[in-house]
Design goal:
CATH architecture of the largest domain: 3-Layer(aba) Sandwich
Strand content: 15-25%
DNA-binding region: 124-218
Distance between the termini: 28 Å
Organism: Chitinimonas prasina
GO molecular function: DNA binding
CATH topology of the largest domain: Rossmann fold
Number of helices: 9
Radius of gyration: 18 Å
Mean pLDDT: 90
Number of domains: 2
Low-confidence stretches: none
Domain Response regulatory: 2-116
Helix content: 40-55%
Keywords: Cytoplasm, DNA-binding, Phosphoprotein, Transcription, Transcription regulation, Two-component regulatory system
Shape: elongated
CATH superfamily of the largest domain: Response regulator
Order of helices and strands: EHEHEHEHEHEEEEHHHEEH
């Protein structure tokens, strides 16, 4: 899933981007409030990791503007402010979660996964579609109880499709959700990943809706035990 990281500390930002990328997120990183505002107006993001103290505006004011515009993207605020009043202020301004520095990368990734579940109206940490089960936390997939090896982008694409049951996604939507700024992207990258997944899952697991996009075969969901 594609995440916007808003953090002006170069060392911290670099570490968070690298760590979240290793955890399976596609991360775009900006260093000030105005750049974040422009990015959110132009691109779709699954969630935002937002520092409170920023150049060219502050995170709290940016958050308030986003909520005034009815942007429902989950926001996790990062700050060195650990006073109870500050946490209350951030949450009441529209933050969905709050993490005080210094930050443990594992906890940040887990909190983001929880935010994404809640945004999708889910409570189960596992995604299941019939006999297919995907665990975002451990980056594992099983089919009919047997482990299924998926390379990085294959896993990301499968996670995206299984999180959108019954909803076809176009190639453009998939690219926007899985690839960050500056990443090398071949014109047929999505088709290649779909092809590889079909070889592993079976050709009928991923449906192509001509002129629309891709989705997991709804009939496969009926095979759930």
């Amino acid at each position: 899933m594609r995440i916007l990281l808003v953090e002006d500390d170069a060392l911290l930002g670099d570490g968070l981007k690298a760590g979240l990328s290793q955890a399976g997120f596609a991360v775009d990183w900006v260093c000030d409030a105005m750049a974040a505002d422009a990015a959110l107006a132009a691109e779709p993001f699954a969630a935002v990791v937002l520092d409170w103290n920023l150049p060219r505006g502050d995170g709290l004011s940016l958050l308030k503007r986003l909520r005034e515009r009815r942007l429902s993207t989950p926001v996790l605020m990062l700050t060195a402010r650990d006073a109870l009043e500050d946490r209350i202020t951030g949450l009441d301004a529209g933050a969905d979660d709050y993490l005080v520095k210094p930050i443990a990368l594992g906890e940040l990734a887990a909190r983001l996964r929880a935010l994404l579940r809640r945004a999708a109206g889910r409570s189960d940490p596992l995604y299941q579609h019939g006999e297919l089960v995907l665990n975002p936390a451990t980056h594992t997939v099983t089919l009919a109880g047997q482990p299924l090896a998926c390379a990085g982008r294959e896993f990301d694409l499968l996670a995206l499709l299984i999180s959108q049951p019954g909803r076809p996604m176009s190639r453009e939507q998939i690219e926007a959700a899985l690839y960050g700024w500056g990443e090398e992207l071949e014109s047929n990258a999505v088709e290649v990943h779909v092809h590889h997944l079909r070889k592993k899952l079976g050709s009928d697991w991923i449906k192509t809706l001509r002129g629309v996009g891709y989705m997991l075969n709804p009939a496969k969901a009926e095979a759930a035990p």
